[in-house]
Amino acid sequence: MKRTFLEYNPLEREIIENLWEKAIFVFDTNIILNLYRYSDETSKKFLETINELKERVWLPHQVGLEFNRKRLSVISDQRKLYEDFEKKFNEILNEIENKHRNPFLSESLYKKLLLLKIDLKHEIDNKIKVYEESLINDLLLVKINNVFEGKIGNCFKPGELKQLYIDGVKRYNDKIPPGYCDIKKPENERYGDLVLWKQIISKSKDSKLDVIFILDDRKEDWWLEHQGKTISPRPELLKEFKVETEMNCHFYKPFQFLEYSNEYLGKTIKDEIIDEVKNYTPETIKNDNFIQINLTLQCEISNLNILINDLKNAGYNVYIEFNNLNDLHDVFIVLPNIPDLERRLTSKYLSNLVDYGINLIRIIKK
Question: Of all helices (H) and strands (E), which one includes residue 362?
Fold first, then answer.
């Protein structure tokens, strides 16, 4: 049975070891863009690990194209994050600096806060300056270009792309992965994941090499999920890859790539770095592309933590406020404005809150 349904079974350790020894490593667009979003140390270690793979690194043309199109926006977004944080911090300090109303603070603590404000402004200004300079003189881009020099695939010809878009219409209508979660994007963008996937298949087929694919895309058209947990890549993808190439394909999330680099490449990447990558979620949310669902839940905190972990493992951005009033808690869930994702959230979680021992008091969609 296993031989007939290989795509539903995990790879044996011997095969995985062979992949780490011989396979090509392919990275999606967010893996490269995240180098601008991580802390300096984490970004440096991640890029060093990629570079250690040398000639076994390869990028689909679609990834290179998307990276170059989005890079400046990502840099600007990171700069704005620091500006917004400074604004919020200053608002709090302005409240504290009003000595004529609560909260009343001791003079010594008040002076410490003022010194902290000065130090914080200095550090944030330096960060903003770095991002502003990166728009013109991007030192990280130089390093990225060096790592991937000569390792970019060819683009598909116009006729090949046209046919792929035609095929994509049927695939998306039939919910065949990858890419159908992007169906609401503009027509010239919605087939990006499908183009990327087909370029990976083409590379493996031509070179007769296995592939390890590292991607930071949490949508259901890449990953098989069950009860809020990521089980494996979508079996349909693994089967399609095997049928077309006769080779193996293995997926990793970015933090898993770093974890197994310690094991298979002899790296010594710190747990703090791996945790940063594992827990990273995009901070910039455009209101027209995302919706927010506000929940008021009544439950034990232990039950709520189980639900929150399941939601986060499923790729949802979740924020929580503990009210400590009759076990009431406010939970905010942010997700892309795609009807199917909202339906899945409702059918898999919100309709089954009783299974978590949770009572739904109120729900508001924004």
Answer: strand 359-365
Same domain, 228 and 303: no
Mean pLDDT comparison of 68-72, 103-107, 239-243, 312-316, highest-scoring range: 239-243
This prediction's pTM: 0.73
Kindly tell me the number of DSSP H helices and DSSP E strands found in the chain.
Answer: 13, 10
Percent helix, strand and coil across the chain, each to the nearest 5: 55, 15, 30
The 10s digit of each residue's pLDDT in 1-21 is: 777 787 878 888 999 999 999
More confident residue, 182 or 48: 48
Does 303 lie in the same domain as 343?
Answer: yes
Task: Point out the domain boundary residue: 279, 313, 347.
Answer: 279
Residue 257 CA neighbour count, 13 Å, CB half:
24
DSSP per-residue codes, 26-68: EE-HHHHHGGGTS-HHHHHHHHHHHHHTGGGEEB-HHHHHHHH
Q: Which residues contact 233 (CB under 8 A, 6 or more apart)?
A: 222, 223, 224, 249, 251
Question: What range does the domain containing 168 cover?
Answer: 6-71+146-279
Does residue 322 share a domain with residue 271? no
Strands 317-325 and 359-365: unpaired
Residue 203 belongs to a domain = yes
- Given the DSSP bridges, would you call strands 223-226 and 229-233 parallel, antiparallel or unpaired? antiparallel
- Does residue 151 surpass a pLDDT of 50? yes
The CA angle 134-140-143, to the nearest 5 degrees, is: 145
- Whether the Cβ atoms of residue 210 and residue 247 lie closer than 8 Å to each other: yes
Judgement on whether residues 255 and 172 belong to the same structural domain of the protein: yes
Q: Which residues contact 177 (CB under 8 A, 6 or more apart)?
A: 221, 222, 234, 236, 237
pLDDT band at 347 (very low <50, low <70, confident <90, very high): confident
Write down the mean pLDDT value for the chain. 86
Size of the chain, expressed as the number of residues it contains = 366
Q: Which of residues 229, 253, 279 is at a domain's end?
A: 279
Residue 16 falls inside a structural domain: yes
The token pair at 286 is 């455009």
